[in-house]
Amino acid sequence: MRNLLMTVSYDGTNYFGFQTQPGGNTVQDHIEEAIRQLTGEQLKIHGSGRTDAGVHARQQPFHFHTASQIPVERWCLALNGRLPSDIRVLTAREVPLDFHSRRSAKRKTYRYTINANRITDVFQRNYQFHHPGKLNIEAMQQSLPFLLGTHDYTSFASRHSTKASHVRTIYDARMIVDSSANVAGTTGQGILHLYVTGNGFLQHMVRIIVGTLLEIGEGKRTPVSMKTILEAKDRKAAGPTAESKGLMLWSVEYDEISG
User: Fold this and answer.
1) Domains located in the chain, CATH noted
2) Residues with catalytic function
3) Residue limits of the Pseudouridine synthase I TruA alpha/beta domain (predicted)?
4) Is 68 helix (H, G, I), strand (E, B) or coil?
5) What distance lies between CA 192 and its chain's CA centroid?
């Protein structure tokens, strides 16, 4: 038996998230079907985490055990030939049998993208949340350091969260403003990319942080209110849950893997 670790990139627009759901049509469903077509094995893959419907992934690791002896360098092309065009396996490698893509993960980074220009970008509309109104970007950036460290993030977790503990560690949170794609003659504040890195995330956590940040940018809250919200440990204290389409799983990091 072999343990294969792969990374997949996908446009989540047309899927109900990564992890298998009763209604089907998830990224996991399509990958497992591609493996069945390739090897004849009816198996389950294990992702580094789940993503909500409409959320995208630049690099999402997953692993599975297989009896197939297909050389590791042939898996990507073989699977991609059996997958929809909006799902692509990027890398494949063999890892020790005890490696687990979720439990072995040390750091995860998500990116949320806000289009703060007056007119939405028709080519990026499925990957950006459009906010045409004026935002105080400096205030939004000033609020981010309050999120850093090890805290109980109940205020930024879905009410439907089933996790026993809402304590997580956020290592980095930063917002980058990109005006390079602005079209001449149009107005706006550019594209805002929020990157958040932590040891793990709760359901809707980044999207609730973004919803709260937008209220700070709109002047409805002050930057220091982020600290008050965090300390409240109450979902009602935070802002709304931002749309899923602006969120992308950016990367997942592991310690050095032998084998």
Assistant:
1) 2-103 (3.30.70.580), 106-252 (3.30.70.660)
2) 52
3) 8-102, 147-255
4) coil
5) 16
